[in-house]
Design goal:
The complex is a heterotrimer. By secondary structure, chain A is mainly alpha-helical. Chain A is about 70% helix and about 0% strand. Chain A has one domain. The two termini of chain A are about 25 Å apart. Chain B is about 80% helix and about 0% strand. In chain B, helix 1 runs antiparallel to helix 2. Classes of the chains: A mainly alpha, B mainly alpha, C alpha/beta. Chains in contact: A-B, A-C, B-C. The structure holds sodium ion (2 copies).
Chain lengths: ~170, ~425, ~325
């Protein structure tokens, strides 16, 4: 059962991370095409400003969040690690998982409600290109949801995340 | 209110020490803080929007672009080549490897915005040679850890970009302000190496003979495109010919094109570079997102205003306040991650310093200098850990090798405080301020 | 009895002219009308929320009231963005536009737009229309002179307007505009005249228009409906009255500063020009597609943009 949960979470995390990586490349392309177009041909890429801010950045940040956690990609203080490992029942790790799960759970819940509201309103920007903001906003609770699930599992089955040097997407 | 601030501060420290990721810590402590100050509804409102709003920013995309540029150059093997080139030219001198690490670090700095990546690259390339010629381990690894710090002073620099975005100061001006202080620091390191070798020649016992001229010239063939890119970046930032965001993107695209044109990029290494770029960007963006919640707690708590009022009513001299802040930053830098120091303290100290009439760009340089120092000082000296893990030299030996260079850093810091012209001359020339 | 504390959030720094000329009069006006009943806790300079998120900060209960440029949130306040369209009002008509917009916001948009997002516009103000400024000292006498030029734009509205006359809009943060103008990254800018001194832009600009009508910024001061309804009657009335007064004071401030700025710039030897009548006509014609495009985008959202503009125009005419 636990193995299955891990497999599903792993799959989800990788899938989101892959999308995030693609968005980084897309961001590179759209920013470069926009700059080249503006300075060489007087034709900037329409909607690049909104697209980069609302889509590329949001997806990069929040879709990579869960996978980055499980592969030890988040900065943390390791000074006390040797001592913390000796804490009985792995309480130190469980405490971190519990509090983080609570925080990201709150984020997921309320940002999820906000996302539903935005979908209902079909929030879309006005301009040369109309950006459906509501689509990008979903990525925020989505990334947090997967992370919350991972953290929730770790309250019961704590795990240590060592920095993985060469991760694949 | 004092009790709430105390509770949140303690919570923050406990969680950090307990090894919770910095980004999560700020979200948790910030969320608890907002709840205590303003109640559940406000907390829910803040947590469900602030991280998104902070990250959904066109200007912030500068960050992943500069990160990606450095990743492309590393994947293409250029960063290691830079060190080798300098080594071929200066290797015949006593301590030549150490100088090559400093010069290589300074040049790497001009294409890389993150410090530990630079330190890791340098260590990987330099350590085998240093061991071969009998360099003292502490001395050698200390130099590697320190030279990596140049990356966040010399543009492009992630630290300056984040400082500029948090404080709404011109990122272009900040990047330009870092050039002279960065070069001054490198010069200081060179002098310090010179002095310590004079004092104790056993640190670098032998030197290889002079490399043949042909071999030396050959190194240029791989380095010149990178130098060209570097010059173009600096020129673009200096001239303001494009916005910093555009410069970052075009720089990354150019790095990719260079690597492809020189047949140094495979699909595999491309994917690896993008993966690393995604990972590092997401790491920083997570901290910025978490910090947004903590920042709102700080604002709602009213601490910044209370601090300003306390300082003004007490009539304390502004330099006393400045010195206290500086000491605080240095102490925090010992223990905390550097990014965390910036995002945690800036909402509180920046309004205060602005009110006291300090120049924002100059203060940015001072702050980044303290961040530089924090990157190598124990117990949380990221660069030393990176160098230690790359070279296999135990961390405590690396830490032993840095203290005399940290002394140089302190002197440079003092010089930057006493002579603001060092930081402000280039941005003024460029008309950026 | 304990006074009610209202957290007020805005993007402007403490000594910005909008703080001094609009927000301070509002706060003082409320405190004068119901002494001791309300205290304001101020969060200036984007402390609580970025400029774009001032409206959300109220919706999410981070602040109780904020000063929000509705042009920044077309996804939330689409109809209100009509004021950003070119040709809605001229500089001389700014006060009339203020009154017309206030009426429109309170009578119509409050129901058709703000109620949907759960807020009440307790007061509103419009800025004088954006002007354009060029690095060259030569006055612009024909729209053809702008063709192919790069101009900094504050938002999507101006970006559309520029593309309609074959010019290029560039998003440059105001803090980086000085450098962009000086180095030729852009040939000019569209920014409110009052903002020029804060960024020392007069040092790098050669000429500026006085009568272009690129559109202005519609500001609203939203409160959450439940928060508003929970206030005592006299406090609500005090806020409405003080808001009405502050809105007009704000427009006076905008207009006075703009005229003073023209004087100052002339003394500095800059070209302060009015577009000649034919150029204005040319601009109106060229920019009509922008208005049409906006109307079409409203149609897609099943919103009656036409009615909003018509109502505004009739309110405006009623002020004569
Ligand atoms: Na750098
Ligand atoms: Na440290």
């Amino acid at each position: 059962m636990l193995a299955l949960i891990h497999r599903v979470l792993d799959l989800l995390e990788r899938a989101l991370m892959t999308v995030a990586g693609c968005m980084l490349v897309v961001m590179l392309c759209s920013l470069t095409i926009d700059a080249a177009g503006r300075y060489l041909f007087h034709h900037p890429l329409p909607g690049n400003f909104e697209f980069t801010g609302y889509f590329s950045m949001v997806m990069l940040a929040f879709l990579a969040l869960p996978r980055n956690y499980t592969t030890g990609g988040h900065i943390q203080l390791d000074v006390l690690k040797p001592w913390l490992r000796r804490v009985p029942l792995r309480l130190s790790e469980r405490l971190n998982a519990l509090l983080a799960a609570a925080a990201f759970g709150i984020v997921t819940w309320y940002a999820g409600i906000e996302a539903l509201h935005k979908i209902e309103m079909r929030e879309t920007t006005i301009g040369i290109v109309q950006m459906p903001v509501y689509i990008s906003f979903i990525c925020f609770p989505l990334g947090c949801l997967v992370l919350t699930l991972r953290l929730a599992v770790e309250i019961f089955f704590p795990e240590e995340h060592r920095q993985v040097e060469d991760i694949e997407l | 209110m004092t009790a709430i601030v105390l509770i949140v501060t303690v919570l923050l420290l406990v969680l950090l020490l307990n090894g919770m990721p910095v980004a999560f810590t700020m979200l948790v402590a910030g969320g608890v803080g907002v709840y205590l100050v303003a109640g559940w509804d406000t907390m829910a409102g803040v947590m469900s929007t602030a991280p998104y709003e902070q990250v959904a920013s066109y200007t912030l995309s500068t960050l992943p672009m500069f990160i990606l540029m450095a990743e492309f150059l590393t994947a293409g093997g250029f960063t290691a080549d830079i060190f080798r080139a300098f080594y071929k030219w200066s290797g015949h001198m006593r301590g030549g490897l150490a100088y090559a690490v400093i010069f290589g670090g300074a040049m790497l700095a001009a294409i890389s915005g993150s410090s530990s990546a630079a330190a890791g690259t340098l260590a990987g390339a330099a350590h085998p040679e240093m061991r071969r010629y009998g360099y003292d381990d502490s001395f050698a690894t200390g130099v590697m850890a320190m030279s990596g710090t140049l990356s966040i002073m010399i543009p492009p620099s992630i630290a300056f970009i984040i400082f500029g975005i948090i404080t709404e100061t011109s990122v272009g001006a900040l990047l330009l302000a870092g050039i002279l202080p960065g070069l001054l620091t490198a010069l200081g390191y060179v002098l310090a190496i010179r002095l310590s070798l004079w004092h104790n020649p056993a640190l670098a016992p032998t030197a290889p003979g002079r490399f043949p001229l042909r071999e030396r010239v050959e190194t240029l063939s791989t380095v010149w495109p990178v130098m060209l890119l570097m010059v173009m970046l600096l020129a673009a930032i200096y001239s303001g010919a494009a916005t910093v965001t555009e410069i970052g993107a075009v720089g990354a695209a150019a790095a990719l094109v260079i690597a492809l044109a020189m047949r140094r990029m495979t699909l595999r290494s491309f994917v690896k570079a993008v993966t690393h770029g995604t990972r590092n960007s997401a790491m920083i963006l997570a901290i910025i997102a978490g910090a947004s919640v903590f920042g709102i707690f700080v604002t709602l708590s009213g601490v910044p205003q209370m601090l300003v009022q306390a300082v003004e009513s007490a009539g304390v001299d502004r330099w006393v306040v400045f010195s206290m802040i500086l000491v605080l930053l240095l102490i925090l830098g010992f223990f905390l991650d550097q990014l965390a120091v910036m995002v945690l303290t800036l909402p509180i100290i920046f309004p205060l310093l602005l009110r006291l009439g300090f120049e924002p760009i100059w203060f940015g340089v001072i702050l980044v200098k303290t961040v530089e120092i924090g990157l190598v000082t124990p117990p949380m000296g990221l660069n030393c850990f990176v160098v230690s893990s790359v070279t296999g030299v135990p961390a405590h030996k690396v830490f032993r090798g840095i203290w005399w260079l940290v002394l140089v850093d302190m002197l440079v810091l003092l010089a930057l405080i006493l002579f603001p012209q060092i930081s402000l001359t280039i941005p003024r020339w460029a008309g950026a301020m | 009895q304990e006074p009610i504390t209202l957290k007020i959030s805005y993007q402007f720094p403490e000594h910005h002219f909008v703080t001094l000329g609009c927000i301070n009069p509002f706060i003082e006006g409320v405190e004068k009308r119901v002494p001791g009943k309300v205290t304001f806790q101020r969060f200036p300079a984007e402390q609580l929320a970025k400029a774009f998120n001032q409206l959300d900060s109220v919706r999410n209960r981070i602040a109780d009231i904020s000063i929000h440029n509705a042009g920044y949130t077309p996804q939330l306040t689409p109809l209100t963005t009509f004021l950003e369209l070119p040709g809605m009002y001229s500089f001389d008509d700014t006060m009339k536009a203020q009154r017309a917009f206030e009426k429109l916001a309170k009578d119509d948009l409050a129901k058709t737009e703000y109620a949907k997002i759960g807020v009440v516009p307790v007061w509103v103000f419009v800025t004088s229309p954006y002007q354009f400024q060029m690095v060259t000292k030569e006055p612009t006498t024909s729209i053809d002179q702008l063709r192919g030029k790069k101009l900094r734009v504050p938002g999507a509205g101006a970006e559309m307007a520029l593309s309609a006359i074959d010019a290029v809009g560039v998003r440059v943060p105001a803090s980086d505009l000085y450098l962009a103008l000086q180095r030729g990254t852009v040939d000019g800018s569209i920014i409110s005249t009052q903002a020029l001194p804060a960024y020392k832009l007069d040092e790098v600009l050669g000429s500026m228009s006085t009568n272009a009508s690129w559109g202005g910024s519609p500001f609203i001061a939203p409160m959450r409906k439940d928060r508003w309804d929970a206030l005592p009657d006299d406090v609500r009335q005090a806020i409405s009255e003080a808001g009405h007064e502050a809105g007009e004071k704000c427009v006076e401030t905008y207009m006075r500063l703009e005229i003073e700025e023209h004087e100052r710039l002339r003394k500095l030897g800059k070209t302060v020009f009015a577009l000649p009548e034919p150029a204005l006509k040319q601009l109106d014609t060229a920019l009509q597609p922008v208005v049409d495009n906006w109307l079409a985008q409203m149609d897609q959202r099943s919103l009656d943009g036409k009615a909003v503009i018509a109502k505004f125009k009739s309110n405006l005419a009623a002020e004569d």
